[in-house]
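User: Show me a protein chain along with its predicted structure.
Assistant: Here is one chain, sequence first, then structure tokens.
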Amino acid sequence: MKKNMFEKILLNQINIPLSLIENYKKIGLNEDELAVILQVYRFIREGNSFPTPRELAEHLTFEEEKCIDTLKNLMQKNILTIEEGDNDYNKISESYSLNPLWEKLFTDAKKEEEHVEEDTSIFILFEQEFGRPLSPFEIETISVWLDVDVIKPSLIKAGLRESVLMGKLNFRYIDRILREWQRKGIKSVEEAREASKPFHKNQPQKTYKKEKRDTSVYYNWLEGE
């Protein structure tokens, strides 16, 4: 008997994205706003796409007036929107939409994942060019470029490639390149490429022994990213 009771309880559930619970603070939400979102989500799942503030407040620890203010805040933050449509009686109806919230959560998460992958590829590329594992000091240097100096990964890769082309493959030279680009206000690979073209024209062409490498982290410095 008790087993059947628990089974009914477990079946009477709604799925809440884990990303919402983990990241609501990162996207600027507080606990009251999260509670309202969860109640709106529950009502939508149960077939009521436009619950009144009073209906929401009945399931919250604060009054209807605060619920109204919280809904306004969520709309101002572009977390919650009100959409218009026609109902079964050909009359205009309104409904809440949490699509802006889902887009913010999952698009930002994807961007962050891509950012981590791009950062990781920098270390791989440096190890391939140097032909050895990086030292703790070298790893820290790259991390400083990324996190403290906030230099784009693509620009760091360009600095590495520039040092290879000049036959001066060392961290001090790469750091000088990146500092010089910062001083000149260069923030993209295209700007760095244009700034380096006059200098390269006056330099003798160097040939390098080709090796089999993971080309997925490479780009052609002179022709494009």
